[in-house]
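Is this the right way to post structure tokens for a design question? Let me know if I should format differently. Anyway, here goes:
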């Protein structure tokens, strides 16, 4: 197992790489880990050098004593790229990972060649804020397992839940095993205080693809399109019959969009 040791005493961040080719950094969402990218990485490794990391307080990575913030996560990503001697990467983030990707592209434009934002739009809509507050209260009252059960209908479509009904208990157990109440509490607390995503979107200079789902309570199509309008030349792709976890609910189409967007020529004036 590979770990990146940060300067903060005792903090180790787990990462994994697969394949060869142009570097593709996958940044996972809240309560996820490197393991959630297993299926996608197995396919993408034939075309890319795939890089994955457990964020602080997730999976095998330490939480540490430093208060979490959006910039702490971004600095961890930059440190990983430095550690791997990667000057610039194709970045694809999901949900919280997409927010980290936006901030990364805004603060360090030279480190991001292209960006895929999935499940993240303008983040000032009431439904999104209330959903996150509900998650925070469920976590406080019932712990990580209660949050896993509560959030499942907010992130996975009815069709996906029907298809995988027999595996649902195992999915919840796995989510609980990969997380701690302490880590999730720190993550959610920080997330609710992040600066507006539109502020960073306006600073993004690289070609950007925004993916949204038609049934997503955390990122409506309207919110995704508002984000797109702030990023010069950004494109939007809508996924139908999908809730939030697009790369898991519709893995083939999401992967196809990611590969096709990489293959698109760079703008002439870049």
């Amino acid at each position: 197992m590979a770990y990146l040791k940060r300067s903060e005493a005792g903090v180790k961040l787990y990462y994994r790489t697969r394949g060869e080719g142009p570097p593709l950094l996958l940044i996972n969402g809240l309560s996820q880990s490197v393991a959630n990218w297993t299926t996608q990485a197995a396919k993408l490794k034939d075309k890319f050098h795939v890089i994955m990391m457990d964020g602080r307080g997730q999976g095998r990575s330490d939480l540490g004593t430093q208060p979490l913030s959006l910039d702490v996560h971004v600095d961890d990503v930059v440190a990983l790229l430095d550690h791997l001697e990667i000057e610039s990467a194709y970045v694809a983030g999901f949900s919280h990972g997409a927010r980290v990707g936006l901030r990364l592209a805004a603060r360090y434009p030279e480190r991001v060649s292209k960006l895929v934002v999935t499940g993240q739009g303008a983040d000032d809509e009431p439904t999104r804020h209330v959903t996150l507050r509900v998650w925070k209260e469920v976590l406080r009252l019932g712990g990580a397992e209660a949050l896993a059960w509560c959030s499942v209908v907010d992130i996975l479509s009815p069709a996906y839940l029907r298809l995988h009904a027999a595996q649902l208990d195992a999915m919840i157990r796995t989510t609980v095993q990969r997380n701690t109440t302490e880590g999730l509490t720190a993550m959610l607390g920080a997330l609710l205080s992040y600066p507006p995503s539109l502020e960073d979107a306006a600073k993004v200079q690289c070609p950007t693809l925004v993916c949204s789902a038609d049934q997503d309570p955390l990122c409506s199509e309207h919110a995704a399109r508002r984000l797109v309008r702030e990023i010069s030349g950004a494109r939007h792709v809508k996924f139908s019959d999908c809730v939030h976890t697009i790369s898991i609910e519709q893995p083939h189409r999401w992967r196809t969009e990611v590969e096709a967007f990489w293959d698109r020529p760079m703008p002439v004036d870049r």
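Format looks fine. Someone answered above. Worth noting: The chain has one domain: 2-124+195-263. The CA atoms of residues 206 and 269 lie 11 Å apart.
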